[in-house]
Amino acid sequence: MNTTRLLVAAIGLALLAPQAVAQAMDHSAMSMPMPQASTAKKQPAKKKAPAKPKAKSPDAMDHSQMQGMDHSGMDHSGMEGMDHSMHQQAPAPDQPTTPIPAITDADRAAAVPPHGGHDMMDNAIHGYALLNRLETWNDTPGRGVAWEGRGWIGTDLNRVWLRTEGERVSNHTESASAEVLYGHSVSPWWDVVAGVRHDFRPGDGQTFAAIGVQGLAPQKFEVEATAYLGQRGQVALRFETEYELLLTNRLILQPMVEVNAYGKDDRLRGISSGLSTAGAGLRLRYEFTRQFAPYIGVTREQAFGRTADFRREASGQRGDTRFVLGFRTWF
User: Fold this and answer.
1) Nearest alpha-carbon partner for 226 in 252, 192, 269, 203
2) d(C-alpha 226, C-alpha 238), whole Å
3) How many CB atoms lie within 10 A of CB 271?
């Protein structure tokens, strides 16, 4: 009897199993959960009229039907082996994408402009002459003329320098001297010079050996400092400095200071040992061109020590103030 009941139950389960599987498959695709199966007999549900769909924009995507979708049945095996390394940003290459060719001698030659067929000559010989002052004045002793000039010929490092200065009063040469010096550049702004100097006046001619320096000091002061050793053991020292103050591009104010000292008295030339004379000048010039510039100015020279006594005996005054008119030129 028990065996018969078990056989009937097995047959009933076999008949109900396909229907249960089909119902599970139908309800897995629906968003609404289904109630648990019951052995009670159910009344068939009344079908509702389908709602009228609302108008939607063509771009809008209806995701309401996707909320209840069962993605468990989707086959993701094809995506597991996908290589996502291509989505990562590739590192910057070490080498440029476009290879740069190596620079050749022809490329370097093409980058240099032609020089017109003239070879560069660093040690070429040049020359320069400057008449720094050629001026005149008219005071009590008489009309006078004074000059001061310099020039050189040579290369950038080695030059032969010429200097000359003097003055004439009432057609009489009061003083005149000339120097020939060899100059060697020891820095971009300074030269060492050595040579000879000859004084033509006052008195008889006298020759000196000369050595000194000249150049451009800080703040653009032009400086000349020269020591002299003359005949009969006479020693002299001369210092001169000038400065050019540009009021405009063409109007230039030039102050100047000059000092002379000697080691021994020389009555024939009207000089004494120690500080002999000091002079200062202020000249205002206008450069019509860079090569030609007339000027006006005032100068003052003062004698000291026994030199002042010698001058007082000769002319009755120890110093002299002059208003000068002249010009400056170079070529």
Assistant:
1) 192
2) 5
3) 25
Query: What CA–CA distance (Å, rounded) separates 189 from 181?
Result: 17
Helices (H), the chain: 2-28, 77-80, 105-111, 305-315
Which 3 state secondary structure label does DSSP give 84?
helix
Q: Can you give the pLDDT of all 331 residues of the chain as single tens digits? A: 555 565 656 566 555 555 554 454 554 444 444 444 444 444 444 445 444 544 444 444 444 444 445 555 555 544 554 555 444 555 555 655 667 788 888 888 888 766 655 555 567 899 999 999 999 998 866 789 999 999 999 999 999 999 999 999 888 898 999 999 999 999 989 999 999 999 998 878 899 999 999 999 998 999 999 999 998 889 999 999 999 999 999 999 999 999 999 999 988 888 889 999 999 999 999 999 999 999 999 999 999 999 998 888 877 788 889 999 999 999 8
**What is the CATH class of 126-330?**
mainly beta
179: β partners: 163, 197
Torsion of CA 264, 261, 186, 158, to 10 degrees: -70
CA distances from 166 to 28, 86, 193, 207 (A): 127, 94, 21, 16
Give the whole-angstrom CA distance, residue 169 versus residue 302: 17
Please enumerate, as own/partner, the contacts of 42-46 that have beta carbons within 8 Å and a separation of 24 or more: none
Q: Is 233 left (phi over 0), alpha (psi -120 to 50) or beta?
A: left
One-letter amino acid of 70: D
Contact 195, 178 (CB under 8 A): no
Q: Other CB atoms closer than 10 Å to residue 228's CB: what's the count?
A: 22
pTM of this prediction?
A: 0.62
The domain segmentation of the chain, as residue ranges, is 126-330
Judge contact between 192 and 209, C-beta under 8 A.
no
How many other C-beta atoms are found inside a 10 Å radius of the C-beta of residue 133?
21
Distance CA 21, CA 27 (A): 10
Task: Quote the CA–CA distance of 236 and 179 in Å, as a whole number.
Answer: 14
